[in-house]
Amino acid sequence: MCLGTSSNRFDSVRDADWEDVSTIRDIAKRAGVSVSTASLALNGDARVRHATRQRVLDAATLLDYHPMRAARSLSSGRTWSIHLLDPSLGANMSSGFFTRYLRGLHDAARDGGYTLTLTVPQDEDEAREVLKRLIAERWSDGLVLMNPSEHDGLLQDVVAARFPHVLLGRSPVDGVSTVDNDNVAVGRDASEHLLAAGSKAPLLLNGPPSRTFTQDRERGFRQACAEAGVRPSVAYVEGPPDDVRGVLAAHLDDGRVCDAIVTVADPNAVVAMRTLQERGLRVPDDVAIIGMNNDDLTQYTNPRLSSVELNAFELGRGAMELLLDTIDHANDGVVRQRRVPHELVIRESSA
To answer: What count of other Cβ atoms lies within 10 Å of the Cβ of residue 335?
Structure first.
């Protein structure tokens, strides 16, 4: 039921909200529509014709209308809030990537009239408990998830609850709406660049093996090596970038040859460069390196770091647009998916 059409609805609105109702009447009068139609248009209801909605929006702009959230929630049945839930924030996630991704989410949410909130639980068990409360107590209208693992109970809970959602990454669970890069192609393209430059002993410094994006990038790395007739080496870094030092040192101390390195995050590549230089190895003369995410820091390393641009802002905006579409078409049963392209950015570290 729309704001302005039921006295019972108004009975639960605070006295201060009557000013909001009165303003909607002013907008309706100026736009030449009923109060109910004005309310539907302001709430983005798909039943309102585009031309009518535009007249209402123009009138709202002219009157400098700002809806009160309490009244807006009552009229629409929505919280106008989106929740970002990430149980592994910081695990092999570069700050540059997350900042741009978050900005994309925020801008698309703002454009849709929503606010964005964030919860960072300690582990998946806490994340599942947060999700249970979020759905039961209706904290938000939809959920953004990140960093899926190969056995993700959180995703199973979301699908079972039929709660509007979108996931950044490849889902190991059916029925999940996703936005992602083609991470197999990301791993393959980065590796092919080094192999084309003459690498015969490439090393992939990968992230946690349980994550679907690291699995896919390793698959692309191995594909490229197989096509080039080169034996691949893979090492896993499950903690922060500083852990790269020990992992890479162990690889080199075992006497294994390494003439090129692919890392799944730029901060990991920076630590790898530093480790090599401390051992007297030159980048790229002795070991070429390419990272991923194309963080701002790539411009300030010596030599400047090659990277894969994953277009984090577009991933965030695309994720939010998909989620808002899901909310607007509740219960349509459609699993929505979107792919965002990537590009190689070649600099001196692998030239």
So the answer is: 12
Question: Using H for helix, E for strand and C for coil, what is the string for 47-103?
Answer: CCCHHHHHHHHHHHHHCCCCCCHHHHHHHHCCCCEEEEECCCCCCCCCHHHHHHHHH
Between CA 281 and CA 274 the distance in angstroms is 10
> With contact defined as beta carbons under 8 Å apart, do 213 and 169 qualify?
yes
Pair of tokens at residue 351: 């030239």
Look up residue 151 and give its DSSP letter: S
Q: What local confidence, expressed as pLDDT, does residue 53 receive?
A: 87
Q: What is the pLDDT of residue 75?
A: 55
Q: What does the alpha-carbon distance between residue 131 and residue 153 come to, in Å, rounded to a whole number?
A: 11
Specify which residues 337 forms β-bridges with: 178
> For residue 341, is the peptide bond before it cis, meaning its omega torsion is within 30 degrees of 0?
no
pLDDT of the residue at 9: 35
Question: What is the rounded CA–CA span in Å between residue 141 and residue 77?
Answer: 9
Judge residue 151's burial from the number of C-beta atoms within 10 Å of its C-beta, 0-12 exposed, 13-18 middle, 19 or more buried: exposed
In the chain, DSSP finds a helix count (H) and a strand count (E) of: 13, 12
The pLDDT of residue 85 is 87
**Which pLDDT score is estimated for 60?**
86
- pLDDT at position 14, please? 36
Q: How far is the C-alpha of 37 from the C-alpha of 160, rounded, in Å?
A: 35
Place of tokens 């709202």: 60
Query: In order of start, what are the domains of the chain with their CATH numbers?
Result: 7-76 (1.10.260.40), 81-181+313-341 (3.40.50.2300), 183-309 (3.40.50.2300)
Name residues of the chain where pLDDT drops below 50. Answer: 1-19, 90-92
pLDDT recorded at residue 19 = 43
